[in-house]
Amino acid sequence: MAVSYVHCVQPWRVSSKTRLFFSVGGRCREDRWKSNCLVFASAMNSDVSLNLQSKVEVLLDSVKWDDKGLAVAIAQNVDSGAILMQGFANRDALATTISSQKATFYSRSRSTLWTKGETSKNFINIHDIFLDCDRDSIIYLGKPDGPTCHTGSETCYYTSIFDHLKDQEVEGNRLALTTLYSLESTISQRKEELAAPENGKPSWTQRLLLDDNLLCSKIREEADELCRTLEENEDKSRTASEMADVMYHAMVLLTLKNVKTEEVLEVLRQRFSKSGIEEKRSRKALNYEGNLP
Amino acid sequence: MAVSYVHCVQPWRVSSKTRLFFSVGGRCREDRWKSNCLVFASAMNSDVSLNLQSKVEVLLDSVKWDDKGLAVAIAQNVDSGAILMQGFANRDALATTISSQKATFYSRSRSTLWTKGETSKNFINIHDIFLDCDRDSIIYLGKPDGPTCHTGSETCYYTSIFDHLKDQEVEGNRLALTTLYSLESTISQRKEELAAPENGKPSWTQRLLLDDNLLCSKIREEADELCRTLEENEDKSRTASEMADVMYHAMVLLTLKNVKTEEVLEVLRQRFSKSGIEEKRSRKALNYEGNLP
Fold it and tell me: What is the pLDDT of residues A87-113, one digit of tens each?
């Protein structure tokens, strides 16, 4: 099915006084922290925009749309890696996503484009878009403004087949969590259990949650042990093991402070997309005059 | 399309002397570290397997297969969160994935089932399977034995639309990396650049890579600063910021030691799925007699 995308490239059909700034790698001054940004600004001729429009058309032509003019589009959280939702995109939807930087799909039931968040305001703000090797599957890598699922769940994937198959009844839903977030969830659960009536002796995580001195001494100790794997030239497996210890104990502290791992990753993204850590360190290190980044 | 799954439940059509052990949460003694495992073992009647077979049938009935009997199936790395590939599953493919614990798809071009890895031996070993809210999209959450893409790439998603749209030529392919792995990639790149002919003064990351004393002093310092956000009751944003510092500097050490972040997450998964960290700590903490986990 041939799908027109005339309206999609309208933002690039700009006047001779308008230039489309396209910057990748977080170099846009307008928004220091975006790793990829399309910035529409005034005051240049239209050569750049025409060039970009042409590139987009070539790119849209290169996608292997199926017999209904669709490709699978998967929205993924740029920080946590969580798969937020999956829909379908046609040529219009992909073009709109590129230009608007809001994840946009084609609704097969309503035969219309829809931008995630147009009703809920929980947009998925695009940082990059990837095609697979066959060019018939798309990842919208983005940051959601809020829960993605219409049920209010953070993602649409909260039904575990293995939970349903096991004999025990499942209490509530369980999101499809990867390792870091499963650990975070487990630590949070231990914290919640502390508020419940006493059920025997506390677990190790709960002991850490209850004793700031113990927790901080462990974090310092594990960081020291991690360093010693380098200083004393220990093998790789020791390094991985000590780093796991550092992360676990530090995540207990995050849980105590009600800081989500995703918030930490957001800080990291904002920094390293601008070489911010390096910048900060270069400022701190008074004797250092190195290049940035 | 009605799809028979008779062959898929064959493993559960066991003799009266065989029992299917179904365990969730890493409690199987046969494989301490699997967070979810189906273990086929001998010596029980078939009640359990019949019950499970019935549950699988109900579950397969509940999926909203499209007019071709298919649903989208997305394979995701349980540790890194990377989207490895996307295919389609029919009833047979999902049933086979449940029973074999190897990600299995339906090839639309060849009209046959195919298990990822049947040729390359790079299977995707399933840890859990999730359905979305509409029950027409599936996540195969698993651990790949090797690169997933037929090109040898770790994942099939290595074509960035934003890279292709920017004016500069793109050097090589860039995987769809979420924040932690983008940072890891950046640090690795800085390390590789050290081997190249001198290009001005080193960046901060490169200084850390070149000076073990500096790196270790920073890791210890940042761990201490993280602890102080708890001890001195600093606000959440300080905690997130200091944790970002800890992670960045620790990841430089990992890069020096050639340890991948994914390896650390694998250690964490193995531990916390068995409450291993808590177990280890309980052994270490001599005065502690707490319950596990």
Answer: 999 999 999 999 999 999 999 999 999
Tell which CATH architecture fits domain B9-144: Roll (3.10)
Chain B hits for A271, Cβ within 8 Å: 244, 248
The reported pTM is 0.82
Q: Where are the domains of chain A?
A: 9-144, 177-259
User: How far does the CA of residue A98 sit from the closest CA of chain B (Å)?
Assistant: 8
Q: Which two tokens stand for residue B96?
A: 């086979």
pLDDT mean across residues, chain A: 81
pLDDT tens figures, B235-252: 999 999 999 999 999 999
SS (HEC) of A32-60? CCCCEEEEEEECCCCHHHHHHHHHHHHHH
pLDDT of B75-113, one tens digit each? 999 999 999 999 999 999 999 999 999 999 999 999 999
Q: What 8-state DSSP symbol labels residue B169?
A: P
| B240 contacts A263? CB cut-off 8 A | yes
Cβ of B158 within 8 Å of Cβ of A130? The answer is yes
Helices B236-256 and B179-195: angle between axes, nearest 10 degrees: 40
Positive/negative CA dihedral, A146, A148, A152, A157: negative
Separation of alpha carbons B102 and B95, rounded Å:
11
Q: Are B142 and B125 in contact (CB under 8 A)?
A: yes
| B contacts of A264 (beta carbons < 8 Å) | 240, 243-244, 247
CATH class of A177-259: mainly alpha
Share of chain A above pLDDT 70, in %: 75
Question: Taking the C-alpha atoms of B270, B272, B273 and B278 in order, what is their torsion angle to the nearest 10 degrees?
Answer: 110
